[in-house]
Amino acid sequence: MIILTFILTTLITFVIMEGVTWCTHKYIMHGFGWFLHEDHHQPGYPHVFEKNDAFFIIFATPSILLFFFGIRPQLNFLFFIGLGILLYGLAYFLIHDVLIHRRFSWFKNTQNWYLRGLRKAHKIHHKHLDKPDGECFGMLFVPLKYFKKVQ
Predict the structure, then answer these.
(1) Staple 33 to which of 18, 28, 68, 124, CB 3.0 to 4.6 Å?
(2) Within 13 Å, how many C-alpha atoms sit on residue 42's CB side?
(3) Distance CA 23, CA 38 (A)
(4) How far apart are CA 134 and CA 25, in angstroms?
């Protein structure tokens, strides 16, 4: 029973992270954190790293702390919350940096309708080069209309 609780904790955390990411993207990255996120919205950014990459460190910090406190004094649910955050971060990296922005040349020719829908929604988000007027702030769950357009 305890193993099932840990698995559910990880899965629920993963799903909640989409909401956390949406809110962070809309209200922080496109708000007071725009100075870090702005270069990400510029086409043809010439450097390997962007200031926007700082958000990976910001999101990794709670996960690392939860791992640390999740094994003290013994394995507890905090570890599995940290694991859910980590797994979401890995999914985010693979979808956002690899599939959508092609920072690595993996998954270049995917024809998967779900991945193509995510890519379409994110392209719509990036059509806005400035802070206001954004849309599609989520990463793994986007409006169905973007999936209908890619079939």
Answers:
(1) 28
(2) 13
(3) 17
(4) 10
